[in-house]
Write a structure and sequence with these properties.
Blueprint lengths: L5 E4 L3 H7 L7 E4 L12 E4 L4 H11 L4 E4 L6 H14 L3 E4 L12 E4 L2 H8 L5 E4 L17 E5 L9 E5 L6 H11 L3 E5 L8 H9 L3 E4 L9 E3 L2 H11 L1
Parallel strand pairs: 1-2, 1-4, 2-3, 4-5, 5-12, 6-11, 7-8, 7-10, 8-9, 10-11
Length: 242
């Protein structure tokens, strides 16, 4: 099996590692959030496809032979569209599913499934650090009177009377996270269970400081013809495919 043209769905550090190994005949697709790399040999495509039907048309029109889904574990809609589009276009669908973080002895993880459960879990706390991406920005004027939020995300945003927005991109070091937690005196961490090493240091610091973690459960993702837990195994499979 020789893959003449790959469509790589990315936006993560893992996806960028894969993209750096692809030649000009392949396509690296980004939603358009965050920094767009300008140093890749492959084609970089920015923007949506118009749902699964639009993606299926793109796959057929562009002669794509393989779709690789290396999007964020919480990009469930994109993954669902990719799986459906691949079936419709009759091309293989591979997925990179990095392992979720696991609580360690003594960790106080409070699992929630959606925003309502999350805000209920935060009710006893005064100063949470949100590391969910941009979603909390839509709720800055719903902050309870006893709380002050710190929201870390990619996009810059004006602070409000009850929230500070930190525009930052990982990876984050253990020393940097320790300094941030000490300066801001958070009493709870809010996180997605993204897995990987780029943002794991915050969990270590929460552990050191004895802070609870309100953890958003991972969404259910579609099955793929081949699933990989790390970039190295996926790249090895591509070498065999070639």
């Amino acid at each position: 099996m020789k893959m003449k043209r790959i469509l790589l769905l990315g936006g993560t550090g893992d996806a960028l590692r894969i993209a750096r190994q692809l030649g000009p005949e392949h396509v690296y697709s980004l939603a358009g959030l965050g920094k767009v790399p300008d140093d890749l040999a492959c084609t970089v495509r920015v923007g949506g496809f118009g749902g699964s039907e639009g993606m299926a048309r793109y796959i057929v029109d562009e002669g794509i032979d393989l779709v690789i889904d290396a999007t964020h574990p919480y990009a469930a809609q994109i993954s669902a569209n990719a799986a459906q589009a691949s079936r419709a276009a009759r091309v293989p669908y591979w997925a990179l599913h990095r392992p979720a973080w696991q609580p360690q002895a003594g960790d106080d993880w409070r699992m929630v499934g959606d925003w309502d459960e999350l805000t209920d879990a935060l009710a006893p706390f005064r100063k949470p650090l949100f590391t969910l991406g941009r979603e909390p920005l839509a709720h800055l004027y719903e902050i309870p009177p006893h709380q002050f939020w710190v929201v870390r995300c990619l996009e810059a945003h004006e602070d409000t009377a009850r929230a500070r927005i930190l525009a930052a991109r990982g990876p984050f070091t253990l020393e940097g996270e320790r300094a941030l937690f000490a300066l801001q005196a958070f009493d709870v961490l809010v996180s997605k269970n993204s897995g990987g090493q780029a943002t794991e240091a915050k969990l270590e610091v929460a552990r050191e400081r004895g802070l609870p973690v309100v953890m958003l459960r991972r969404p259910e993702l579609p099955a793929a013809e081949r699933e990989f837990e790390n970039v190295a195994d996926l790249l090895d499979a591509l070498q065999v495919a070639d």
